[in-house]
Amino acid sequence: MKKEYLLTPGPTPLPPQVSLAMAKPIIHHRTPQFQEILKEASRGLKWAFQTANDVFIISSSGTGAMEAAVINLLSCGDTALVVQGGKFGERWTEIAKAYGICPEIINVEWGKAVSPAEISKRLKSNPQIKAVFTTLCETSTGVDNDIQAIAAVVKESSAVLVVDAISGLGAVDLKTDAWGVDVVVAGSQKGFMLPPGLGFICLSSRAWKLVEASKSGRYYLDLRKAKKALDKNDTPFTSSITLIIALNEALKIMQQDGLENIFQRHRIMADATRAAMQALGLELFAPLAASDGVTAAKVPVGIDGEKLVKTMRDTYGVTIAGGQGELKGKVFRIAHMGFITESDIIMGLSCLEKVLTKMGYKFTLGAGIRAAEEVFLK
Amino acid sequence: MKKEYLLTPGPTPLPPQVSLAMAKPIIHHRTPQFQEILKEASRGLKWAFQTANDVFIISSSGTGAMEAAVINLLSCGDTALVVQGGKFGERWTEIAKAYGICPEIINVEWGKAVSPAEISKRLKSNPQIKAVFTTLCETSTGVDNDIQAIAAVVKESSAVLVVDAISGLGAVDLKTDAWGVDVVVAGSQKGFMLPPGLGFICLSSRAWKLVEASKSGRYYLDLRKAKKALDKNDTPFTSSITLIIALNEALKIMQQDGLENIFQRHRIMADATRAAMQALGLELFAPLAASDGVTAAKVPVGIDGEKLVKTMRDTYGVTIAGGQGELKGKVFRIAHMGFITESDIIMGLSCLEKVLTKMGYKFTLGAGIRAAEEVFLK
After folding, report:
1. For residue A26, which residues of chain B lie inside 8 Å, CB to CB?
2. Is the pLDDT of residue A60 over 90?
3. What residues of A are in contact with residue B62 (Cβ under 8 Å)?
4. pLDDT tens digits for range A169-205
5. What is the DSSP code (8-state) at residue A114?
6. Residue of A nearest to B220 (CA)
7. Domain map (residue ranges) of chain B
8. How far apart are CA B162 and CA A200, in angstroms?
9. Residue pair A185/A88 in contact by the 8 Å Cβ criterion
């Protein structure tokens, strides 16, 4: 007998009613029945994105939606400011370069948040910058950037602000319209408690002006087509029917919960996880900008980080994430995002304690759990 | 009580074991468990595509995979020969134009198959043509093109042959390697008996030379990235985990059945459907090149084609397809593709007979069913 537990920053576990919705007989996408579901899901997405603008659903991973943002806003030769403080910041740069867009890069030390003042400085010194690309939760380092403060400085320029919120949306607050964020990109397999396979994107009217001016070649990811279709309550190409039906179920659960409750639950689970790391004598990788969606901790000296993750998974069925890119083997990451509760966190922390003990790391057994419980009882 | 029946050319119904596979708890994509599934699915896809080359899985609708073919093979300014005999042939042209590729168009009368001799003539008169884009089953008109004959003439030129087999693969024969087809594109929601959301593409070594030479901007659909990932038994971006698990289940069913049995089943169901149309006095839209995946019939004079489709769906729960584009209201289409049996065809034909009768069309009640039964009993 083996039971599996998922504490990874995408995919995140699925609520059973979402899983079961996908097992229902498939329906055709050009029917009133599916149109009703698409309409409801679109309404729910606006709520989750905290925007009055349309949120488009793309059949793609989150990266497809990121690319849609880049090529619909900019053309070859344009300049973009890219915040690069981890693997997903780097992705903005890679996409821009693939299309001949010139990225001006702000290299942020991994584990730190970008300074809004630095963004402001760069925008002032280079008026060519048409768009600023940044990340809500840099999953690779466990950092949440201060999007509200970034939006405030970008608003002083003529550039649009694009936020990769693939990791983070539906877990931490992002007031798209109220803060003046122009473009928000998200994906299905994190805060939305769905399998991967859907990308989401919303755009302000300021961003739409760029979409209409962009000369980039585009077809599948052409947002003008997406808009034309959505105006008729449709998608430009065959919808990922099953995933959209599941999305609608997940959005219902989220709406019953309410955004404030969702954000608070994530904050408390993050606080508890961070407190546990400290109680275990483990160093947070991003102590000053720690994400409420995922906690990254440094692997202690003398411990094999990859083996730690592998043992938790293969011996105990608890899947957490290791480090990516330059952090491979150096950090481990526990996600507290989506369909995750206090009890799941306790379970994951206990497994960590057991495996660390077996690997020879010294600490007071139970100290992590106790610290987490203290946070939960507050 | 209402029971739904789906006889549409995508999505097609799902076998229950495929549906239930999607309801299982989600697993992480960077685990040995998922890698085993991906490896098995990749092997199964090669079998279904009848190729020794890799088949790449893209998280997108079929159109995304079509776009991958265009932009990975060609650059702005290149010339492509496009066979355009329906809505999906037109899609090749639209994608090419979106990227500044010059389409030389063979306009085929809707309802007819392209003449391989015409393709040969065009290739000889324009040696600039780098690629020929055609369609296996033109779902919009119910036509199957003769890919084997097309491949034979394209092989005499330096151009590569690209076949949109989104509709048709897994239903009608396409011997990719044996016939010398360079690129085959498919999708999940037709012969593969899955929900929409996955695109597939395989390429010959000749086609790979073009991929390496293409100057088109590309990132999400960059097949060089897909190849690099697949060589490590991975996908370049987060996999559509649930759909790939379902794919693996569907491929197991298909492999137990065997390709010859699958093609024969589709051929017999198509023959029966065509015989029924004739027995009902209905004219086939594509009598000379009728597809074994979907039958298109002309709506008889005096009958409202859209109302016919709507009544079958809303009164009897039987969803067939109407006409697309210029054929809207003029044809109806019954798919016999994927998880469909003789009994489903009888059920659909009976519903058609009832609704045609109610709408005032004159014929011998039961004649269609009888003609179909005669084919099935042969």
Report:
1. 6, 11, 13-14, 19, 195
2. yes
3. 237-238
4. 999 999 999 999 999 999 999 999 999 999 999 999 9
5. P
6. A64
7. 5-10+258-377, 16-256
8. 30
9. no
In this complex, the residue of B71, B222, B313 whose CB is nearest that of residue A31 is B313
Partners of A6 on chain B (C-beta within 8 Å) are 25-28
Dihedral (CA of A96, A100, A104, A106) sign: positive
- Which among B29, B339, B185 has a CA at the least distance from the CA of A195? B29
Render pLDDT for B184-205 as a digit per residue (tens, 0 to 9). 999 999 999 999 999 999 999 9
Tokens describing residue B277: 């149309």
- Closest by CA to A183, choosing from A113, A130, A104, is A130
The pLDDT assigned to B2 comes to: 86
DSSP annotation string for B352-371: HHHHHHHTT----TTHHHHH
CA–CA min distance A140, chain B (Å): 14
Q: Which region, left, alpha or beta, applies to residue B50 given φ > 0 means left and ψ of -120 to 50 means alpha?
A: left
Q: Closest Cα to residue B159, out of B133, B183, B130?
A: B130
Q: Is the pTM of this model over 0.95?
A: yes
Please tell me if the domain spanning A5-10+258-377 has the same topology as the one spanning A16-256. no
Tell which of A3, A20, A22, A318 to mutate to test the B interface (max B CBs under 10 Å).
A22
- What does CATH list as the number for A16-256? 3.40.640.10
Residue that the structure tokens 């690997």 belong to: A359
How much is the pLDDT for B9? 96
For the structural domain made of A5-10+258-377, what CATH number should be given? 3.90.1150.10
Give CA torsion, residues A56, A58, A63, A68, to 10 deg.
Answer: -60
